[in-house]
Amino acid sequence: MRIQGTYTGAVSGRTTERTGRLAGSDDGDFAVSLSASAAALSGIGEASASARTQKLSSLRSAIAGGTYKVDSGRLADRMADEELQRAGRA
């Protein structure tokens, strides 16, 4: 795989650089630089994935232990809202 062309636009705030080799390619190495904004967004994604994993673990434990409680009023409201949306009335 060969990537043709060069980007000549302005790039500011580059903070992270990654290097490697294209999978299945004999064309050589490549380098990718992330802007400060992209690096920050990457960190947010990793943090939210960690939070999601912790929440799922907590929910699994509560369900397995029989301590998980369903808010029936909230569930009914959401079911009604979903049905109204599906019918085009919301």
List keywords for this structure.
single chain, 51% helix, 90 residues, alpha+beta
Task: Summarize the structure in words.
With 90 residues, the chain is α+β, with helices and mostly antiparallel strands. The protein has one domain (14-87). A two-stranded antiparallel ribbon has the order 1-2. Helices cover 51% and strands 17% of the residues. A hairpin with a 7-residue loop joins β1 (14-21) and β2. The protein has helices at residues 36-65, 72-87; strands spanning 14-21, 29-35. It contains two helices and two strands.
The number of domains is 1
- Count of beta strands: 2
- Percent of residues in beta strands: 15-25%
Sheet with the most strands?
A: 2 strands, antiparallel
Count of DSSP H/I helices: 2
Separation of termini? 49 Å
Average pLDDT, rounded to a whole number, is 76
Shape: flat
Order of helices and strands: EEHH
The largest sheet has its strands arranged as 1-2
Helix content: 40-55%
Low-confidence stretches: 7-17
Question: Which structural class do you get from the secondary structure elements?
Answer: alpha+beta
Radius of gyration, in Å, reads 24 Å
